[in-house]
Amino acid sequence: MSLVFAINGQRFELDLSSVDPSTTLLEFLRYQTPFKSVKLSCGEGGCGACVVLVSKYDPVLQTVEDFTVASCLTLLCSINHRSITTSEGLGNSRDGFHTIHNRFSGFHASQCGFCTPGMSVSLFSALLDSKSSSEFTVLEAEKAVSGNLCRCTGYRPIVDACKSFAADVDIEDLGFNSFCKKTSLPPFDSSDVCSFPEFLKDEVNKSIDSGLHRWCSPGSVEELQRLLGACNSDGLSVKLVAGNTSTGYYKDERERSYGKYVDLTRIAEMREIRESRNGVEIGAAVTISKVIAALKEIRVEKMFGKLAAHMEKIAARFIRNFGSIGGNLVMAQRKQFPSDMATILLAAGASVKIMSLLSREVQKVTLEDFLQEPPLGVYDLVFTIEIPFQSSSELFFETYRAAPRPNGSALAYLNAAFLAQMKEDRTVVNCRLAFGAYGTKHAIRCKEVEEFLSGKVITDSVLSEAITLLGKFVVPQEGTSDLAYRSSLAPGFLFNFFHSLTEKPSSNGYHHHLDQPKQLSSSQHVPINDEYFPVGEPVAKSGASLQASGEAVYVDDIPAPANCLYGAFIYSTKPSAKVKGIRFKENSAPDGVVSVISCKDVPKGGQNIGMKFSFGTEPLFAEDFALHVGQCIALVVADTQRHADTAANLAVVEYETEDLEPPILSVEDAVKKSSLFEIYPFLYPQKVGDTSKGMSEAHHRILSSEIRLGSQYFFYMETQTALAVPDEDNSIVVYSSCQTPQYVHSTVASCLGIPENKVRIITRRVGGGFGGKAVKAMPVATACAVAANKLQRPVRTYVNRKTDMIMTGGRHPMKITYSVGFKSTGKITALELEILIDAGATLGLSMILPSNIIGALKKYNWGALSFDIKLCKTNLLSKAIMRAPGDVQGTYIAEAVIENVASSLSLEADTVRKINLHTYESLALFYKAGAGEPHEYTLSSMWDKLGVSSRFEERVSIVREFNESNIWRKRGISRVPIIYPVSMFSTPGRVSVLSDGTIVVEVGGIELGQGLWTKVKQMAGYALGLLQCDGTEELVEKIRVVQSDTLSMVQGNFTGGSTTSEGSCAAVRLCCETLVKRLKPLMDKSGGGGPISWNKLISQAYAQSVNLSASDLYTPEETPTQYLNYGVAVSEVEVDLVTGQTTVLQTDILYDSGKSLNPAVDLGQIEGAFVQGLGFFMLEEYITDSEGLVLTDSTWTYKIPTVDTIPRQFNVEILNSGRHEKRVLSSKASGEPPLLLAASVHCATREAVKEARKQIRMWKGVDDDSGLMFQLPVPATMPVVKELCGLDIVESYLEWKSRVNSRL
């Protein structure tokens, strides 16, 4: 039997006996086809990078059904007789890009580009859906990519690109784009895409399954029973498959091998939805998406519509399209999966039919009983699910969930669903109360509370008693995260439900289900500067359409060379332990393993180093001793990446810890044991003024206040990856996704013990870096090089997301203790700091942290400033420099101090901020030469300008009025400034003109998504255009920037610090000036008959042997090596006091970009950095165990921002601050500084929490202001916010109301 399917119209036919049934569609696409647009990022269905469109033909109805799936979870065998469309199948550079690709490019919606193909397919599918049902609306546009992750853009331009297809959108309301001057945009057209291949239609009716292969697709219950009976007789293990989406959560399932994989989706009874007089019966194999669609159609039953609305928050659309309702319930019953489906169906009174496939008996049980029974047996099957109609008009139904992401793609902290029959006099006839996902085995009904409420009239006192009773039953198991928070949600939801039924909706009521989320909106004010045309133009990012189509080549997209092997890292799970050896479980090498590479395999003459930088070196492999959890011990090499990953998971490292000193696992312990790294004096910041004098002048002092800041993971979409290929003469070529090719080069050479001229590092583009591919990419490339050198075969690795999160580290945690003196006006006179930075076990680039922290913290005039900063050496994972390293912590410390001072004086924080803003004189005192000229200091005027444009004072009053009239929601608004010092550094470049007039540019900087290539092209166009020959105005179209090659472009330095684009542009300008000097005499000679064309000039230059290749090294000797960046942000938030959920209602940003080299690129950097900062301050919990092992190691547990967590109104203005002669065409940096502005969201949240605390203290009769002196931790997640607002807020309200009523 054959497996027949199509990919982008091409026929594929595989012998089913030759296919491993556990092979995923992603694996087949990436390793056995030329289609590389489908990316691997998380491998668990949590990011959308691997999304493809599946088309399924119905021969009876002669219709085609199109839907998206996560190809990383979809089994290859399950797409038999189906057609697959990837992003390059929509359009490409050869056949023409699709409208969607051009729209993403034109809306500047692609930066690193790794996520863009998946985004394109998700949007395409949403447009197809709307075409078959109704018009595509703005609301549907926002949902189109709601399950797709992006770490670069901040989502706003992506949403605008989607909204541009909406029938109800006004083009004037769309964000900044290349189509601004057009009155309409090309419509969506699917006529030439996604037509179901005729050859597949003929195959559909041939689907007869013999059951002889490991993959079987029985077409009836009888076939299924016969098949499983045979498996039982033969002792074969069996995996029943519907969508296989469970392997995204239970990843260990992938490593299990089954004798038979049985596909259930062809059994008619299991894929049908049948409506009867009593309810709806749903086949267990029906996808969640189809269940949603069916429930929405049953309009007479209000409960069904609410069930459907809740189900739309389960996972992402591309998971719901393939995941089955039965599979979800089985996971809940068998594996205690925290299911929303189980909870809401439990409240709806659902039942299930269970079929024993051996005895052939069918048993109908309530869902409640089903969940309580022992785990379902291997040969027992959930056959159908029945949801009864609720005919009474007195019945009320509602569902609830509290989750890190409002619109789904996140497990709930707690979910609930309530069904109640109520009389008009508010008497409860009966009710059903279901709770789940709070840290219990399965969803439960609180029958004791149901019985208590039945027959009672709902009053505040009755609700209070019911909530007290509820607390005895909704109790998470020990060890559950955020245990108290989860318990606190149940009373809130119960109160919400009954209060909303008995009270008329008002501003004081809590009616979360009545709220409609505000649609995303934005405005951008972008200055266009034509002085250096085409520099200053908002040119679309170079290669954006290529990225959208998926044709842009990343390291893992490079076709595997012949005999290529694959590596996976084995890392330490113990801190400070002797490594005795490595073995595999069951003491036998897993399938496909070729070798285990360790420190013993470093060549003679080489050094065991995996990182070589100016501050020193770090080991590649642990030798006899593991310093920390996550340290690389070995690289297991196998014939496939899957075999390598499986082998690494099966590896057992044997440790010995006897007679060893206890590991150092905290900064306090490091200080106590004097375990510190030395900080070079020239990198240690200088204090300002005399803090002793400042303290003596102060009217008030706050002494020894403490702040703790945790880490943040990079979450680049492309994980660490490298490919090493041995070459002739004992040389090696390494393709590395890195920000530091020069340093990777020297590290590989030193490790292999060969001259540097025998090493070549090639980097074309990087799928996101954020600092994580500076130092941490070096050992990945070096390990592959060592393995390739030993085995004399190409070796590559694509590090899986979990390993990447465990080994790579992230932002530096730190402990800050400060004392501050200030006057009664709020003017600060002195600030003293003690900062303990956790650098981890090795130094890396941690030495730059002290100056960065203080550089950002000096944004206020502290009067005098002193500090004691220590770099602590611990036995924890070595930290890396993440976007704005130290700077983001520094700006937060400053804001924490300001807010503490404001609270102690009962002043508005904004008042204290303003009074401590720098004058130019104080700025020069704190920043010295970096302050620049007086006219360059724009922060003070920007503060006032944004105050006016954002209507700050007016909105402060509106927020105050809102808080006075709303009990269950509080708002806060905050205005925050930033100062961000950056440094220029040397950068090389080369410009070569080819014989046809086209131009090739090489630079040391790496394209990470920050638009470096785009700005470089513009600069080359400008500098060569100074020749003013005919055609130079179109030179940008002739320019191509090519990959970085360390043997071609030496002294490449590193890409980071926000100024590499400027430095690369400066280097290219120098090269072009050289070429202009060489071409000018020739042009002058040829100019008698009018302007000579560019192509003719180049032809003459070639004929006369003019050197048309120029290289140069830009060094910032004639310009200040450091300058300051300024920005201000105003953010307004709303906090739900029952759940702790914070919604960012509006953010207004004003950022000084000097004279922007490309305002479209800079706008993208500003928004993307801000949203990444939003993740740090509000969402991203980086949790480790007591020994430092990262626990938040997947998309299930680590939550970066999504479309539904960004500001609902997002306004950005780029300030053109005029001429700065000593900088690159008067430009300024934009890559990192705006990240700090996200502190405004955190500060606004603190304001909202403060109002909540005032309210609850009033309820409790507490008069003093001590409760208003509090610290809001980072990140301010829902549990953190709720705890500060009061975990007992509902109970406190009811008690207060009872006291008030008793006085009446």
Automatic annotation (TrEMBL):
Enzyme Commission code(s) on record = 1.2.3.7
| Signal sequence region | none
Domain 2Fe-2S ferredoxin-type residues, every copy: 1-90
State whether keyword Iron-sulfur applies.
Answer: yes
Binding locations of FAD? 324-328, 340, 401
* Keywords per UniProt: 2Fe-2S, FAD, Flavoprotein, Iron, Iron-sulfur, Metal-binding, Molybdenum, NAD, Oxidoreductase
The GO terms this record gives for MF are:
2 iron, 2 sulfur cluster binding; FAD binding; indole-3-acetaldehyde oxidase activity; iron ion binding
Catalytic residues of the enzyme = 1232 (proton acceptor)
Q: Which residues of the sequence carry a binding annotation for Mo-molybdopterin?
A: 739, 770, 883, 1057
For [2Fe-2S] cluster 1, which residues are the binding ones?
A: 42, 47, 50, 72
Which cofactor(s) are needed, names only?
Mo-molybdopterin; [2Fe-2S] cluster; FAD
Which Pfam family is one of those matched by this entry? CO_deh_flav_C
Determine the domain of life of the protein's source.
Answer: Eukaryota
Q: Residues in domain FAD-binding PCMH-type?
A: 208-392
User: Where [2Fe-2S] cluster 2 is bound, by residue?
Assistant: 112, 115, 150, 152
Q: What note does UniProt attach to the cofactor annotation?
A: Binds 1 Mo-molybdopterin (Mo-MPT) cofactor per subunit. Binds 2 [2Fe-2S] clusters.
Transmembrane region(s): none
Name the CDD domains for this protein: fer2 (cd00207)
Q: Which InterPro entries match?
A: 2Fe-2S-bd (IPR002888), 2Fe-2S-bd_dom_sf (IPR036884), 2Fe-2S_ferredoxin-like_sf (IPR036010), 2Fe-2S_ferredoxin-type (IPR001041), 2Fe2S_fd_BS (IPR006058), Ald_Oxase/Xan_DH_a/b (IPR000674), Ald_Oxase/Xan_DH_a/b_sf (IPR036856), Ald_Oxase/xanthine_DH-like (IPR016208)
Q: What class of enzyme is it?
A: oxidoreductase
- Alphabetical list of PANTHER family matching this protein: ALDEHYDE OXIDASE 1-RELATED, XANTHINE DEHYDROGENASE
Record family assignment:
Belongs to the xanthine dehydrogenase family.
Q: What is this protein called?
A: indole-3-acetaldehyde oxidase
Q: Which organism is it from?
A: Raphanus sativus
